[in-house]
Amino acid sequence: MASMIVVGVQWGDEGKGKVVDLLTAHVDCVVRFQGGNNAGHTLVVNGRKIIMHLIPSGILHQGKTCFIGNGVVVDPGVLLEELDRLARYGAPVTPERLMVSRYAHVIMPYHRMLDLAREARKGKGRIGTTGRGIGPCYEDKAARSGIRIHHLLDEKSLKELVERNLEEKNFLLKHYFGMETVDAEAVLDEYAAYGKSLEPFVGDVGLRLHEAMAAGRNVLFEGAQGTHLDIDHGTYPFVTSSNTVAGNACCGAGVGPTRIDKVLGILKAYTTRVGGGPFPTELDDSVGECIRNRGVEFGSTTGRPRRCGWLDMCVVNHSVRLNGLTRLAVTKLDVLTGIPTLKIAVAYRCGGETLTSLPTEGDRLACCEPIYEEFPGWEENLQGIRRFEDLPQNTRNYLHAIETMSGIPLAIVSVGPGRDETIVREEIL
């Protein structure tokens, strides 16, 4: 039995979906442990591309069981829509292959309304939230007033919680934000119907994972977003509303830390960021635009253009420490082909100091000026290469620099968007 956590080491969008898809062939179970439908990954079903937000990307592998853990916040309408879409495209999902934790919290209509209202009110100070209600749902979870999946299966409990919550939420919506209020009966009808549809998929995920591990099954824990969007350890307040670091896989899935064997960190060969917040290596020039267009750097959830910049080892090494990484995977290396000179940030200048670690305080990080090492680029097409030794020398030099600076072995290199356009240096499962 082996268990591995997969996390992004930057600000999300590192290509975790492709790597998880690659690794799923070697595991029995895939678990999503945090976040909500603010994250997204693209799947190809019978030649059609579809974007999924909640169902783990391993769902397309026959014989694998997928889990949505208690640490995820679930919009039941979105989840049912994803199930319907997969069925329409010839990949129906049965309860034998997908389980949703009965303890996961539920995104309600008032969460989405509050999310959008707050973001609009912030003006220039916007965080860049997707407006999907993720933050307000996690707020209710922390305030112990949240609605969990099991409440959708008990109409009496659901009614009590909805009516109690709407006393506060409707007051805020009407008197503070000047918005329409939410009708309790409409919400109850909608969410009770969701409960009936989802009931066959609901179960105790932590218990099922314990049983799977005891039986010698291999388990893959799939994180959403990236390390530097972590609510505690990221570039606060420009972060998401959950813990994205590897340590939360145990809390968000219901397993003990001694059951984890390996942690794989995914990083792009460059850096991207969506939404607001400091970004020291950002390229607001033709090189940044070139990377954005070649890498198709537009949000799968929102369609927003991603901000692009050079690889930042201060960011990467902070993630190495926080996640206890054992291996690295580099994605989108092919996007850098043809750029004459590549740069990697190795430190920052900040107020007369030289920093080699990442200050996560927004104001301080915004004042940091990156210190770069330069590397000659390459012109060769990488997409047909399957052995590390066959990569151009300049490409290998770039990758060796990442290994040396991080101190973590590089196990996987992605040289194109296809599943087979991958160099596997080490079988890690």
* CATH-assigned fold name of the largest domain: Adenylosuccinate Synthetase, Chain A, domain 1
Overall number of strands? 20
How many angstroms does the end-to-end distance come to? 9 Å
Q: What is the mean predicted local confidence, pLDDT?
A: 93
- Contiguous low-pLDDT stretches (5 residues minimum) are none
Main sheet overview: 10 strands, mixed
Query: What is the highest CATH level, the class of the largest domain?
Result: Alpha Beta
Number of helices: 12
Describe this structure in words.
This protein is an alpha/beta fold. It folds into three domains: 3-101 and 203-262, Adenylosuccinate Synthetase, subunit A, domain 1 (Adenylosuccinate Synthetase, Chain A, domain 1); 106-197, Adenylosuccinate Synthetase, subunit A, domain 2, CATH 1.10.300.10; 267-424, Adenylosuccinate Synthetase, subunit A, domain 3 (Adenylosuccinate Synthetase, Chain A, domain 3, Alpha-Beta Complex). Helix content is 32%, strand content 20%. The chain is built from twelve helices and 20 strands. It has a ten-stranded mixed sheet, sandwiched between helices. Strands 14, 16, 17 and 18 form a four-stranded mixed sheet that branches. A hairpin with a 7-residue loop joins strand 19 and strand 20. The longest helix has 22 residues, at 155-176. Belongs to the adenylosuccinate synthetase family. Mg(2+) binds at residues 13, 40. It is an enzyme of class 6 (ligase).
